[in-house]
Design a protein that fits this description.
heterodimer, A: 416 residues, eight-stranded mixed beta sheet, globular, B: 95 residues, alpha+beta, Folate-binding fold, four-stranded antiparallel beta sheet, binds flavin-adenine dinucleotide
């Protein structure tokens, strides 16, 4: 069924009796050509592009809980392509371009809103660094704009420009950045994949990977064994657990990241704003809540909930740049488990086990990557070679010293 | 989280800096033939378990000692706190 304005009117006039479930509740088949482990944004996007773009058949996504219950439904929904390094920027710009056409492509309203993202600048060296990053973005076909303090004061009069410690000296804006309704991304990809024949199997936990003569031949699940010619692992924060089933260690630590939403307010924030001197970023959802967050808690965790020191730190950051936020009450807060990699950049690569492919290491920034990650992982699974924008996302970059470390922090995941 | 420091008693985890897996105590021999492989594994690869994890915390805003904390990554429960120096010695370091 295609969704359209006409359809909405027709259903309204006929008592809404024609709507169908958005995707089938599939029973696992004994065997598939390709199994994707993990029904998050990346796994569902991979299945969708495998079927739609790369003409693959007999595909299943196996999800231990319900789709959208992982990070794809827990993030703060920001999309952008404001990276600097060669290995990253073409990939993230490819992703942003896919976001721009996504809703038409999968015929689902994901509320892609290019309301812009602004990184605040608080010192002269930071201005130099951000202008340099802006130039790298422009070289890669993305948009970037330097805004002076005066321009900002006009657009965003409520920021605290004269904070004694961190005055606002300007900002780097990416107007094409913005926010997307995160659950709708999972649902839209699930629906699109389902329409192309993909089986989405929920409540089906992968507990082992069966191998024969050094080749992966299927997954042991809570609903029995399912055979596969190829298996793609896209489980974000649980990556080490899946790869641990085949005794592989990853260049990844799992960390918890928290997010917060205030009570609903009238529109106050036009776009996304990030603090440049501490960890705080904020946007306003269409329902009116201020959606904000900051740093990861900083210790290994699979708990999906964080601790109070980070709550305090995030709120301090908010008060520093936007004192009016002190009048709003926090309504909800939660945590998600991040796959923090050793250089802060992801991996989309074959493993050393034939038939087993890996997608992970997305850190706290994998939501914006969802379309390109799915596309590139599907490319790798279908053609056995990396997509041109993902050639740097290899496992062996650590061994070879080819890290993609945007912040230059070294092998310390909690600093990326 | 409260870390029960073996010398100073219960302290807020905010006083500490987190480094990571305790295996970082075992720095490989840089002269070994396979030093490159060993350092790759040491520096970049992690067990990253869901459950009990032995990890290094530095008491930066306290007595500046390194501790090995045994903590459950699923619940954040801390079950054991030891001085890292003692453990390193037991493992044959600084003989
Ligand atoms: C608080 C927070 C804020 C964030 N903010 C942003 C942001 O503003 N912008 C941005 O770009 N990114 C952001 N991120 C990061 C982003 O959400 C993640 O990088 C991204 O969603 C990860 O990919 P995914 O959607 O596939 O993961 P998930 O949705 O976590 O999918 C993985 C799935 O695998 C399943 N799974 C795990 N183990 C198994 C198993 N054994 N068998 C079967 N299935 C299994 C899980 O149940 C889960 O559904 C944020 C994350 C958090 C937690």
């Amino acid at each position: 069924m295609r969704y359209s304005g006409f359809r909405v009117i027709k259903e309204a006039l006929t008592g809404h009796k024609g709507w169908k479930p958005t995707w089938r509740d599939a029973e696992p088949q004994p065997e598939y050509d390709i199994i994707i482990i993990g029904g998050g944004g990346h796994g569902l996007a991979t299945a969708y592009y495998l079927a739609k773009q790369f003409g693959q058949k007999r595909i299943a996504v196996v999800e231990k809980g319900w789709i959208g219950g992982g990070n794809v439904g827990r993030n703060t929904t920001i999309i952008r392509s404001n990276y600097m390094l060669d290995g990253n920027e073409p990939f993230y710009e490819f992703s942003l371009k896919l976001w721009e056409g996504l809703e038409q492509d999968f015929n689902y309203n994901a509320m892609v809103s290019q309301r812009g993202i602004l990184n605040l600048i608080h010192s002269d060296p930071q201005r130099d660094a951000f202008v340099r990053r802006g130039n790298a973005m422009i070289l890669n076909g993305a948009d970037a704009e330097y805004l002076s303090r005066e321009q900002l004061q006009e657009e965003l009069p409520f920021l605290n420009y004269d904070n004694a410690r961190f005055p606002i000296k300007g900002g780097l804006a990416q107007r094409r950045g913005g926010t997307v309704r995160h659950d709708a991304v999972a649902w839209g990809y699930a629906r699109g994949a389902d329409q192309h024949g993909v089986d989405i199997i929920q409540n089906c936990e992968v507990k082992g990977i069966r191998q024969k003569n050094g080749k992966a031949i299927g997954v042991e699940t809570s609903r029995g064994f399912i055979g596969a010619k190829k298996i793609g692992c896209a489980v974000a924060g649980n990556s080490s657990r899946i790869m641990g089933m085949v005794n592989r260690k990853l260049p990844i630590e799992s960390h918890v990241l928290q997010a917060f939403v205030s009570e609903g307010l009238k529109p106050v924030l036009p776009g996304v704003i990030t603090f440049g001197a501490g960890h705080f970023y904020v946007s306003q959802s269409d329902k009116g809540g201020l959606v904000f967050g900051g740093d990861i808690d900083g210790y290994n965790s699979y708990a999906q909930r964080g601790n109070l020191p980070v709550v305090e730190d995030v709120c301090e950051g908010g008060m520093a740049i936007m004192p009016m936020i002190g009048r709003a009450r926090v309504l909800r807060m939660w945590g998600g488990v991040m796959d923090m990699s050793m250089d802060g950049s992801p991996i989309i690569d074959k493993t050393d086990i034939e038939g087993l492919y890996f997608n992970g290491g997305w850190c706290y920034g994998g939501f914006k990557a969802t379309p390109a990650s799915g596309w590139c992982f599907a490319h790798l699974l279908a053609k056995d070679e990396p997509h041109e924008t993902a050639t740097a996302y290899r496992f062996d970059r650590f061994h070879k010293g080819l890290m993609i470390d945007e912040k230059g922090m070294g092998a310390q995941p909690n600093l990326h | 989280m409260i870390i029960n420091h073996p010398l100073l008693g219960p302290r807020d985890s905010q006083e500490f800096t987190y480094l990571g897996d305790m295996s970082l105590i075992n720095r490989p021999d840089w002269e070994a033939d396979d030093a490159v492989d060993q350092f790759h594994e040491y520096l970049y690869l992690r067990d990253n378990p869901a459950g009990e994890h032995k990890e290094l915390w530095f008491h930066e805003q306290g007595d500046r000692s390194w501790l090995v904390v045994t903590r459950n990554t699923l619940t954040h429960d801390i079950t054991k706190v030891e001085i890292a120096k003692d453990i390193a010695r037991q493992m044959g370091r600084s003989k």
